[in-house]
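Collaborator request, handled under Task 6.
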Amino acid sequence: MHLIPTHDEVVAMLERTGGLRYGHFIYPTGFHASSYLEVSLAMRHYEIARILSVGLSRRLRAHPDIRAIIPELSIVAPATGGLPVAYGVSEALRARQVYWAERENTHEPLRFRQFLEVQPGEKVLLVDDILRTGNKLSQLKTLVESQGGEVVGLAVVIYQPYPNAIAFDPLPFYYLARLDPQYFPDASSCDLCKKGAPAVKVRV
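Structure tokens returned to the collaborator:
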């Protein structure tokens, strides 16, 4: 295993833990896809969670601007999937603290847990387990900035972008592996449906 796990090493860990599955899947967005990824299934395992978190932290340390502000850096993540990654990266970096945001249902915007509040001028790194649409991280960025925080970068374990996923340029963006499954916008365009492959509806 490399100090920063390679793409193939990350994929192997995900496959071994059931975090990455192949077949015919229907996402809540309506997209059909040839694979399904749930990073939290891999993060259940202490050894793998540590490898992924430390590997991601090493990518961050390699950026001189991030490395220079680590003692004052706060990490903000969406609950619940981003929290194991945020705590692991925070421990590996020895960052200042972790905040998290949540929502009661999918129709509400993310908000901080009661008594959590970003301070004006606070340097913030946004962390999650995966980026697909970018919607959660975009909401998180807006929330942090609405309280006067400064977002200095974003980091995820896996970058698996949907078509037209939100981009965060010019902010630095870090990930350990990029996955590009075959996406179909609906059943009528899905090659897997045309082949009669059984479909599984998944939650993300």
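The cover message to the collaborator said: "The helical segments are 7-17, 39-43, 46-61, 64-68, 82-93, 135-146, 191-194. The chain has seven helices and ten strands. Please let us know whether this matches your experimental observations."
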